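so ive been stuck on this for like two days lol. basically i have the seq below and the ligand is zinc ion, smiles is in there too. i just want the complex predicted, nothing fancy, no docking runs or whatever. if the output looks off dont worry ill sanity check it later, just need somthing to start from for the group meeting slides
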Amino acid sequence: MTELPSQYHRNLPYGERMSADELIGDSLFPFEGDLQVVPLADPELPEPLRAGEPGGKPCYTCTDPDKFVIWRDDQWHLKAFENHGLPFVAVLEPREHYRLDNLPPELTATLGVMIQRVAGAIGRIDAVGRTHFSRWGDGSEHFHLWFLARPLGQMQLRGAMLALWDDLLPNVPSEQHQEHVRLVAAALAEDGGEAVDLPATE
Ligand SMILES: [Zn+2]
């Protein structure tokens, strides 16, 4: 194993399986019965390069800037994805390639406004109770913010397990997905920017 980088790491039981007891029986945990946690893997250092990092795979967004885009303005675009179980799954990205730490002030200034606008637009879908957002950035360097719509009234889907439920629920039918896309893109365009053509079916 590479040298462990911190006291935190030295405390961890590598190769061992944690107990799932803390989660089993929790009202928001989507699994029951016998569950085995995978053994804790060793740290990988240095970490593998993300797409878009120098020396890594090319940036997905900069390679194909229009793919999945349903709305854009001069600074931002919103992508929406088919074949998901939640009523709407989308990603907000700056059109230019930035990381969170080097996002210029003109983009950090409008990020909050965009979060509010995107959540509001997704909330127009009748199936949606609340729209959550999260920044996971371990796959691609190009800054991107995920939006996950929780179905109305499905209180079992509250919290971080929502991302798992997205994989567990049956996919939204293609036609319905396209209706949702049109509605969200049009709602965003009401306050600026342009709705763009529907993304091609995957
Ligand atoms: Zn990029």
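Residues 52, 59, 61-62, 97, 142 surround zinc ion (CB under 6 Å). The two ends are 40 Å apart (CA to CA).
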